[in-house]
Task: structure prediction
Amino acid sequence: MSFPLHRPRRLRRTEKLRNLVRENRLHPAGFVYPMFVCPGTKVHEEISSMPGIYHQSVDQIVEECREVESLGISGVILFGLPETKDARGTSSLGKDGVVQRAVEAIKKAKLDVLVITDVCLCEYTDHGHCGVVENGEIVNDATLEILSEQALSHARAGADLVAPSDMMDGRVGALRAKLDENKFQNVAIMAYSAKYCSGFYGPFREAAHSAPLVGDRRSYQMDPANSNESLREVAMDIEEGADIVMVKPALAYLDVIRRVRDNCDLPVAAYNVSGEYSMVKAAAAKKWIDEKRIVLEILTGIQRAGAGIVLTYHAKDAARWLKN
Ligand SMILES: [Zn+2]
Result:
């Protein structure tokens, strides 16, 4: 294929031509918008490190979900900021927990928005780890029972999908079994399959008040240097019954998204995490970058890497920009 017979620029001449041959098109239907639910009413507090993202009480969450629906975004994923925390994350289980109440309220409002719940302990434990701690160690199997109970309580509240983010071994199987035993076989599992131990979660920890008090998450989240291991995590989650697999974070892991896409036939999601969002917002505030252009380029890149579903704090802005 050589010049002058072939001229790739021929198809780049006009927007009509470029549009005709475009390989990837962003659509709000592929977006999931993360939200933080807190106790109280009429609470709407901006998270300082994440401009435009709020801690909100249930009533406010429902209002923002109306907006999410009107923008054609497919779903929201809910994270809880509970009233109380303890060693085992007990406040994550109750029918009256913040997430459970938010799910119920969104469902009651009959909004055409998928409700996904994050299933983990770190937002609910006083030590901030994603599992139960015994003698300084995050113990795997004891954590599974609590996670399954939490997922069940979300399903009872009406969640369409549950999304375990803890990275304990065997959690997908444990959740699937618990949901099926309780006749929630239609509640799907979106597994955070390849979740890396990443510095890009910084702003989220402020948002979810979930930074570990002691130690770090290296004994359960994946080492950023590993790629083959992501395929193993994905394969295990599929075997245990995952319906959607996820790679998290997105930008420093586009190669992982591509490998996962090429090696499985389930829908693949990627989480465009808080640090990725905050860097864009900070640079945009300083007018160093064109926010709209950068965000759409980032989301396109994540999709091009192989993620058909993108969890992103930019979802509402991007959906608006795509409409115009
Ligand atoms: Zn966690």
